[in-house]
Amino acid sequence: MARRNRYTHPDEALRHPGHRRPLTRRELIAQGFRAGGATLLGTSLFSLFGQRAQAISPDLLDPAHTRYSSCDLGAVAGRKLPFICFDLAGGANIAGSNVIVGGPGGQRDALSAAGYGRLGLPPAIQPFANNAMTLSGDFTDDTLGLLFHADSAILRGILDKSSGLRGFVNGAVIPGRSENDTGNNPHNPMYGIYRAGLRGQILQLIGSENSESGGNSIAPAMLIDPEIRPTKIDRPTDASGLVDVGDLKLLLDDSEDIVSVLESMKRITDFKLDLVNTRIGNPTGEDQRLKERLSCEYLRSADTLEKFSSPDALDPSRDPLIVGAGGIFSQVEFDGDREFSKAASVMKLVLDGIAGAGTIEMGGFDYHTGDRRTGEARDFRAGQCIGACLDYARRTATPLMIYVFSDGSVSSDGGIEMVNGVEKGVWSGDNSSTAASFFLVYDPAGAPTLIDAGGSDPLQRQQLGWMRPDASVETAATPAANNVNLMVETVILNYMALHGEQNLFADPRFFPRHGLGGGANRDRLVAFEPLQSINGGVLG
Question: Could you state, in order of their start, the residue ranges of all structural domains in the chain?
Answer without folding.
Answer: 29-53+76-237+311-539, 244-307
